[in-house]
């Protein structure tokens, strides 16, 4: 495994930088107490260890006036931010959700924890990632971000790192809070309210109970209400006209030329090629989805004796979303004067020769999707000390449920009514009773269940080194997860017009693990850490995950740290057990060479005109885990009022799971004749790709306490040196500085504290990038002359007043200068974002006021 020596040397030489931009001010404890630190299974007094951990504490959360966990993610440069699912309402499974990713990898490579333990992942997303919208802001005390891989400590899915949300502990008192926010355009209104309470002192009374309840309601913002997205014709920005050809007036190709099926298309919608365009962005599509969420968290801890405590944690969240979409587009058989017409405009009696037109049946009205997501998770545990050893035993059970109810039109009945000439799909004056008889309400229900048990013990080994006692931790865990994602028969049978066929996913698996960790203080200035975890999953998948780390502190204000770890990620249950999904495919060009038994004439015709068929994409129960390796090297320094850190990192992944390409499936002989479709090609998921990512993180903080006020400057930055992925031939291609992959992200803050006042300025900046969705190494598709999407910055102002006893007032103006995203031609040509990359939002300036009363 080769790593760039020059980059390592540069990282070692550059001793400039930060304790994290959101670093927690260390309190002066009254007594020495060991605490559990993210990135280690061993409780310890010293918090700053060999692991690269960034902390966002409660004070930092208040400074940025975050009302959701997603807002926190936006303000941490090392976390990749993609707002796709909170922007668009046409993702059938995950609209309204939010996921965290790191290091340029997928969200499935980042493990999300609550107090060090796993949470059930989003069921309708195939069990790949946890939806962070399910977490309540009021119960979170801090966020720890482990950025150098964590499989040796936490098991699978921690390839890129771990984000650990830590709840409030031993909380007494209560608070009532509320906030109101609205965009400068009067939309996107957001209201929050909540109550928090805690009772009992664990040390004095022997127990503590804590509860919080949050409510958030947010109105959507529509594409029609922002200049960048008020039409899908992006030619005004130098882009393409992405308006739909599926028009209510119908577009049919006769004798090689387009014409309307019905008269009346407005002049401004007629394209130069004769098609009548339809603009989906000028009505109901959302640019920022609405939200209706409720979060409940309950925590309890009780002393059983002086050395033993029992605890329970319960999390429940519920979100309801309503999305509206245009009437469904699709192909429709063309009739003229009640007769079937072929592609030459002639009357035909052969259905195989009948031409179809691109249309949109408007009379049934808008499609409405009602989504309800719930998550419940309970943890029960006991921990304590025996002799000088810390021990803990815990078990948990969680369920993520996602239910969709979608209105639509029955495909079979619709085509039958067309064939019988009972309706005219280009008219709004059909018999309403017949139209109503075509309407359907389809259902899809998904559930992911997770259960686990873990136990561990840690303490001193009795072996003393020059720096102190060698400490250890050993433990075991058992997990079980079960996924069911069941569309109703209408969706399974492909009977929802304008939709795609939905498939069933049902599967489960169990796993068990043994792990151990040792920290050896070789010298007072040198600490070594070693961890090893063995995971075994159902189906014979087993993996050792080692971790080696070192911490060297030659002087009190300088520390050097390094780590190497190996990690793995299990295939999702969807990868293993999803039913086959089917779609149309036209075989052409070199694909034709692999269709069996074609004579010379048929082969030539295939290459010239193509042969229509179908393809099936299927899961693969024989998939292996994806494997990863990571290397990190960094320095942490402090000089007077300045503190900072610089860390170089690299991650390599092998056996990355993806679908076979069409050509790979054909070369493997996965094609057969089909009586219904002519030819049927089968694609399988395979362990077929590689990734190699590298970058540098810098965090800086400068704090000046003066008689006038305390001034704090902080800055954190993630700079990608490479984002490489293998292509279909196995060659590695570089993707840094291409669409959606800017080279760096930066967050700067300036805060002033004086008396009861706290004010701050935050600046979030993303680098420019080439507006092309291809690697520069792909000479056939990369366009070096493509326009660049400019760098984007947003400035936030926050102000808080705590001068009145028990009262806190927060005011914020987010995106003060009303910066809108830069247009992207790549985004304009896809459904992923309406004219701009989902790294940003088009909310614009947002005004927010919040009040909290404590008692």
From TrEMBL:
Membrane topology of this protein: Multi-pass membrane protein
Coiled coil: none
InterPro entries from the UniProt entry: Beta-barrel_TonB (IPR000531), Beta-barrel_TonB_sf (IPR036942), Plug_dom (IPR012910), Plug_dom_sf (IPR037066), TonB-dep_rcpt-like (IPR039426)
Kinase found in the keyword field: no
A Pfam short name: Plug
CDD domains in the record: ligand_gated_channel (cd01347)
Compartments, as annotated in UniProt: Cell outer membrane
Segments forming domain TonB-dependent receptor plug: 48-162
First and last residue of the signal peptide: 1-23
UniProt entry tagged with the keyword Transport: yes
Xref: Gene3D superfamilies: TonB-dependent receptor, beta-barrel domain (2.40.170.20), TonB-dependent receptor, plug domain (2.170.130.10)
Primary localization: membrane
Keywords: Cell outer membrane, Membrane, Receptor, Signal, TonB box, Transmembrane, Transmembrane beta strand, Transport
Record domain TonB-dependent receptor-like beta-barrel: where: 375-816
Family: Belongs to the TonB-dependent receptor family.
Protein's recorded name: TonB-dependent receptor
